[in-house]
TrEMBL record:
Residues 23-71 form the Cadherin domain. The lineage of its organism: Eukaryota, Metazoa, Chordata, Craniata, Vertebrata. This is Cadherin-4. The gene is Cdh4_6. Transmembrane segments: none annotated. PANTHER family: CADHERIN-23, CADHERIN-4. It is a single-pass type I membrane protein.
Amino acid sequence: MEANALLTSCLLGLPPGGVCPSPVDFEMNRAFMLTVVVSNQAHLASGIQSALQSTAGVTISVQDVNEAPYFPTNPKHIRFEEGVPAGTSLTTFSAADPDRLQMQQIIRY
């Protein structure tokens, strides 16, 4: 390969190692901003008044997906004494949905 064609590039704005350590979550980060840097390895010809490197900004947008609701306490253990009258409330349940507000959804039981 011709020396003039040798380039070095890197991405700025990623975690160390350049890989996200966990799945991307729309509710935590809706976008990532990166900077791509490319540098010329060979010296420029004499008389050229240009930088040896160039940068470009890149925005990566994360698309939201519908995530399932969940019960924060699961399994739920209930204890009661025998002889409790019929119709007595034993417990209540509550569920959460990570994207309920973005998707404008209602949780139904």
